[in-house]
What does this fold into?
Amino acid sequence: MDTLQSKTSFEEWTEQKSNGRFTNWLKAIHQEKWESVINHRFTNELGEESLDKDTFSQYLVQDYAFVDQLVKLIGHAIGTAPSLEDRIPLVNFLGQVTSEENTYFQRSFEALDIPEKDQTDPQLLPATKKFQQLMAEAGRSLNYANIITVFIVAEWSYLSWASRISERSYSKFYFGEWVSLHANPEFRSFVDWLRNQLDQIGPTLSTERQQEISELFEQSLDCEQAFFDSAYL
Ligand SMILES: Cc1ncc(CO)c(N)n1
It folds into this structure.
């Protein structure tokens, strides 16, 4: 396990690295939490298709509410991105979430017999509310770096665990497609592009602001962890 302290500044860290990406610094200083999220029991059971159907159903219901807030966050990212060139990949990704991913949820809800009320107005778990609040707050900051930091944790962590379990074939489409939605070449290149956005901004920020971004990255990881944990409550 990495022995880096969360206090290691980006400046200190890059001195020992040639071409160290800002987002790799963020991951390195929160390595333990990162590993815990991407190797969560939920992802392991999903990868073995041994995940309990009710556990997955509850997770999907909560996640659809997460996705609604994520769509709003992407809207804020689009509005605060520095140029049209930067807005376009965000717009395309937003299009995917609201088409392919949205219909994945619709088809899964039907296959899993999820009541209408749970699809449109579910009882939110505390972890879902907390994550929504973090995204809403980042959106309200109207600060592109803050906004994409939360966004990066969400997409990069999903890419990481999904890639680990994407080799096998799945008998249930709602398991298999949930993995392939987060482990395909287009998604991979979007996540890399998104990280690059922050890799470019990060090094230009003051040490204090870099520390704030690091804290936001950590809070986002905490939200991911709690979100998976609450599938088992
Ligand atoms: C909780 C959570 N984090 C990240 C993603 C990826 O968008 C998701 N669907 N749900």
Remarks:
- The chain has twelve helices and no strands.
- The mean pLDDT is 96.
- The first helix runs from residue 10 to 15.
- Residues 63, 66-67, 70, 154-155, 158, 224, 227 surround HMH (CB under 6 Å).
